[in-house]
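chain below, 186 aa
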Amino acid sequence: MEKTPRGTAVGVDDPYEFAGLCDHLTGEGTCRYAFDHYEHDPAFARERATEEYACPVVDSDTDEDWTWADCPHFRSRNRDRECVRCGLEEKRVAHSSERPLLEEHHLSYADGSSEEGTLSHEITVYLCRWCHAKVHTSWARLTDDVAPDPEAVAALEERRGREMDEFGFESAADRYERDRSDDRTT
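prediction:
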């Protein structure tokens, strides 16, 4: 199983199983990284420019058989706001500093060949706080068939309840009467 730099498990043997499309891939199949960040890797940018910035992984016209692992600038961040392990959905409360229910979980880390300790490829997914702790502190896997933790469900329902309270209607007359009665008691 893949490990973090500190030696804890990340929950998968192959991070590319969870990788989606590259974040730098445009809808037309071109590499936005080579175009927007040419100064970071001029040789890569020149090579992509000669191919009209076509992504070598999705471009079927090339003779090369590239995979996402072959691309030096691959990055895949999951955008779905639910836990990939248990399916718990995120419920954020606006203007609240509460800890989110979901946390970003990195599946790939520095491969050891980089002196700077940067990520070799950034592959991230979302895990709820409870699954995140289980994956890092045990042999729990992202592919485990699990239901959300009871504490996670309780936290989600508590947030939903507060959200529903916000949607409740209270007329201005009722609020005015309540405020006036509060003023009289003080």
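Helices lie at 32-36, 42-50, 129-137, 150-167, 172-185. The CA atoms of residues 109 and 129 lie 20 Å apart.
thats it, cya
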